[in-house]
Design brief:
The structure holds two protein chains of two kinds.
Chain A lengths: L7 E3 L4 H10 L4 E4 L5 H6 L7 E4 L9 E3 L3 E4 L4 H5 L2 H6 L1 H8 L4 H6 L2 H5 L12 H6 L28 H7 L3 E6 L2 E6 L19 E7 L5 E8 L10 E10 L2 E10 L6 E2 L1 H7 L6 H11 L13 H20 L4 H8 L8
Parallel strand pairs in A: 1-3, 2-3
Antiparallel strand pairs in A: 4-5, 5-8, 6-7, 6-8, 9-10, 10-11, 11-12
Helix pairs in contact in A: 5-9, 10-11, 11-12
Chain B lengths: L2 E7 L2 E7 L5 H8 L18 E4 L2 E4 L12 E3 L12 H8 L9 H14 L5 H7 L10 H17 L1
Parallel strand pairs in B: 1-5
Antiparallel strand pairs in B: 1-2, 3-4, 3-5
Helix pairs in contact in B: 2-5
The chains are: A alpha+beta, B alpha+beta.
Chain lengths: 343, 157
Amino acid sequence: MMRLPSYRYRAPSTIGDAAAWLAESPTDTMLLAGGTDLIPNMKRRQQTPATVVGLRGIAELSEVRDGDGLTVGAGVTLSALVHDERVRQQHAGLWQAVAQVATPHLRNMGTIGGNICLDTRCTYYDQTFEWRKAIDFCLKKDGDVCWVAPSSKRCLAVSSTDSAPALIALGATVRLVSATGTRDVAMGDLYVNDGMQYLTRRADEILTSIHLPEVAGWRSTYWKLRRRGSFDFPVASVAAAARFDGDRIVEARLVLGALASCPLEVPAAAARLAGEALTDELIASVADDAYPLAKPMDNTDFELVWRKKMVRSLVTSALRELRGDDMRQARTRLARHPLLQVS
Amino acid sequence: MKLRLTLTVNGEPADTLVDPDKTLLEVLREDLQLTGTKHGCELGECGACAVLVDGVPLLSCLMVAHECEGRAVVTVEGLTEDGRLHPLQECFADLGAAQCGYCTPGILMTAKALLDREPHPSRERIREALSGNLCRCTGYQQILDAVEAAASLTVTR
């Protein structure tokens, strides 16, 4: 039976208290929101904070506010987002991403802030303490060697968040609050391609909300590859968003997920798509541009060569869906069931 | 250091002293002697430990017990009413929807949450709602049949 390690539990009711308590000892304090990432990691001793600050009692973190776009509290559950018509209608890419996270139970618990900050994942890291001890641990936790690429000085664990690529494509920003101040960071600037230091969020900062800008003229989409139709983290994903003027794209963003230690933006695509209509030829050409950027490593599910190959297919599907093609059959083929139905 | 935890379990108040590092699953089984809820993977990858917290199906293995302070928990022991089985339990028994039975409590609670919210779900909605519950005996056909049957039974009652 896997037990949690001992820790000191604190439950603030305001962001101010949470920030003050985090500031007392930021490096050995961790924030607990939905618990679906931190609790398994603590049971496997991948993360062993001395203090856990539970954020569930902070009402402000669960608010969603309209006006000048949409501001979503970091503590809003993924299920709440899935059931939010504003998200479904206006930010389809985020809705599709969130609707495909894990399982209904985990979406009932997991929060959007938690998914954004999701720990990077790796075959050699997401194992029990005894398993990791048997290989003398790994670079990310307690060891010296990255077993994915033993000559690598950098941890290669995979960014496995579904929401981050979608939020980057949508031009979202996040608010980070600490005892010393508040700053807003573009989602694209929140991540670093390093499996250990994958966030630019400081240890004393709390991600409190996500701001989605106005979406007039924008369309967005998210495509996810995984083995099973539920439970699994992405092993490759593509988020795309574009602002249209009639059939022509004014500006666009394309982001690859789960193919590096951070979401990968494809700036070349944005440049290629501007001013153009989405023809089959252009879509194929942009998919060709995106393909070489994906450099998956052999540290998650599926053959890495196939994961890389699938980038072309996922980009193509994403851009076709932005164009307005009916992609429901293709989605069902990929996931083996239709995308979530919500009552 | 143990901290006081008060919550409602299956309609009755529970008041206990619990270490902060205990999960809801451990408190239910070890402190409240409600062993109907099962330890599965303990990592959120199987659904065997699902219970209702304020009516919502959650994984009790990932829930720090103290985060349930003041909340209403329903476990499989709370499904019967006045000694009568819940329609879901009747249909699971009648249609052979439990093989080894280990995943059954989590599936019953998840299905109850669905039927409470949507009394007449489509087959597709039932599949979707149960997509976080693994049955290693793989008897999914009968499980889906039983939930469908329970939904129709509820209508005739």
